[in-house]
Design a protein that fits this description.
By secondary structure, the chain is an alpha/beta fold. Helices cover 45% and strands 11% of the residues. It contains 21 helices and 17 strands. The strands form four sheets. The protein has an eleven-stranded mixed beta sheet with strand order 15-14-13-12-7-6-4-5-2-1-17, sandwiched between helices. A two-stranded antiparallel ribbon has the order 3-16. A two-stranded antiparallel sheet has the order 8-9. α13 links the parallel β6 and β7. The two termini are 52 Å apart. The N terminus is likely disordered.
Amino acid sequence: MIEDQKDSHTETEDVFSAFFNMQKETIREFAQHFSPLEDKGQFLGFNPSATDIAEFATVTQEIHNVWLDFITDNAGLAQGQVNSFDPGQWLAIAQGIAPQIPTQPILDTQKIMVESVEIWKSVFNSLFEQSSEKNDLNRPRFARQDRRFSADEWQSHPAFALLYQTYLMMAEYLRNATKQIEGISPEKQEQLEFAITSLVDAMSPDNFILTNPVVLKRTIETKGQNLLKGMKHLTNDLRKGQLTHTDAKAFELGQNLAATPGKVIYETPLYQLIQYSPTTPTVLKTPLIIFPPWINRYYILDLTEKKSFIKWAVDQGITVFIVSWKSADESLKDIIWDDYIVAQIEVINTVKKRLDVPSVHCIGYCVAGTTLAASLAILAKRRESDCVKSATFFTAQVDFEEAGELKNFINDGQLEMISNLATDGYLDGRYLAATFNSLRGKDLIWNYVVNNYLLGEDYPAFDLLHWNGDVTNLPSKWHSDYLRDLYRDNKLVVPGALMADGTPIDLRLVETPVYIQAGREDHIAPAESVWKATRHFSGQKTFLLAGSGHIAGVINPPSANKYQYWTGNSDAPSLDEFITEAVETKGSWWPHWLHWIERHDLERVEASGKRQPGIKGDKVIEDAPGRYVKTR
């Protein structure tokens, strides 16, 4: 039995070794025998002079010095300490799962050989077609296409065309073969598919200098300055332990992000409560409280002026409050599930008392929506549910049976690793950012490795990416319980399985009207998972499916005129049946939500008194966005 396991391990290694080595061999063979360049001393039209060689040598020394300075400054890492946030660690994790993959479906070498011959033929034929008619219309087009390889350099040079076509063929084959593996649980199947995708994306030829013709061309044009700049980007990222996506100097909180005027009117060690200044003479009597997720900064809902949901809601005549959660540190090491629920109920009561109103509207985004569902259940159990007139859920899950790719990080081994990463009672937010990025590694990791480190490009000024990189730390006790009780054990939908603040939680008791929004392409809170909330609440339910994903599906202002949304029968037996009968509407879903809110309360009042935070006689703490959102 031991020998069989060793044999299986060896066979699997051979399969993946063949996958990686094939890229190297194909470009070597084709470059040697079919290079279209007349002068074999040239590469991509470059024949270096003595001056060029001297400049390359100077840049090479500068690159070496930058790396040496980094090693000197980080002697602990050089002596063997592991940087948990080094992008290379994610590749190692993905590769480590290879021995677990059954080999039988993968070892169909005959099919690989047949398709390989077809690729060679197509590239060989394109060589002669290109030599006879050199124009863009006749640029070789191959069976498999991927935007990573859309540049002319990939298409026009046969060696690189063969390389990326072979890579795409093998990547497709490995993914399909993994899906056909039998005899394993669905959870294990998903984990294997995720690992294969991560591994294949990491080994793409565009991620490496010598197998990326675009990088080679840039290196020749700049005489290596792109690699020097890229090395500076890399060492800066390693120092801060996080991949940079955007120009950090382009944005300042309170100036061009999180700039909607308002005041911090209340605070505790866990959160600050912000009230925004009205822009209309009258406002809806019932105010709105937004509970954003504490795994990110609240200003995802208050980006630039044109994208701000908060400003838009204020301009519609809504009195808006939002909670700004404090990024965890040692002082919050004992924070658990109960504390966030207690905080939400406390905020509801604070706003009611401040404005002297009987009820409020609430929005819960992502994990804060999950907690809002629990808060509503507790209020219902205590017969206090009238204090919430309506509840809206932005991409929030309550039933985690089909919670998507994040469940790949919820096995016992992953939970133990996460526990070990948590120091001083909190989990560094960079770990969570790396986890979310890995769900779309091709777009959020390797794309930036190529652009930032290999091409040496300047960082773009992109508000959404700035927010994405502005990470928050999490209380480790809460995080551990959240993963085990909800993602792994799905206890929230089991009546009485969870308690908070001494009260058992039963979602069936919730009769508050709810508006449930999901993103059709959401990979963090899949639409199918969000839809399940409609099965657990007992009151009036409105389900809306928005185009795009977890962020863009929510942050879609009417002025952008982007995407679409679907409405239909919220009592349909399944999401598929909802979609089949749904009506598609182009553009933003925000106006649809506003009409839903107004159906529950059309009464308006003067925007005076404490509706204007900081007015004479109204004691406030500080201007929005407050201190907590700036705490790192």
